[in-house]
Amino acid sequence: MKRKILSECFSIDIYETTIILMIGDSIEIINKYVNDNITKVDLLDTEGCVFENHFEGGFQYYIVLVRGKLTHNLIAHEVFHLSSSILRTINITDEEATAWVIGYITELLYAFFKKKQISIE
Fold it and tell me: Which sign, positive or negative, has the C-alpha torsion 8, 63, 67, 114?
């Protein structure tokens, strides 16, 4: 069976932000793909992470998860980091804005998991 990476791009229009979800069979596969095609970053020794890619005109935010390691706890943990990173970049510290972004991203991710029939432990 060929190992693969699923990805999906989401927009948060209110903050003019793009999020890319990457789910792979292993962190090694994702790490190689990211380093060969997107940016140089060390993703090893983790079950999930968040990183930014700076490009002319803005940022892209990535949330990376390993398919066989998905738990609600891991997803919540990484969504928190992702939300913090997005809001820090645009200098928003408001608690309500933070809660809204966390909820919005969580709904986007869970809808994707359901659509792709990705199970969560």
Answer: negative
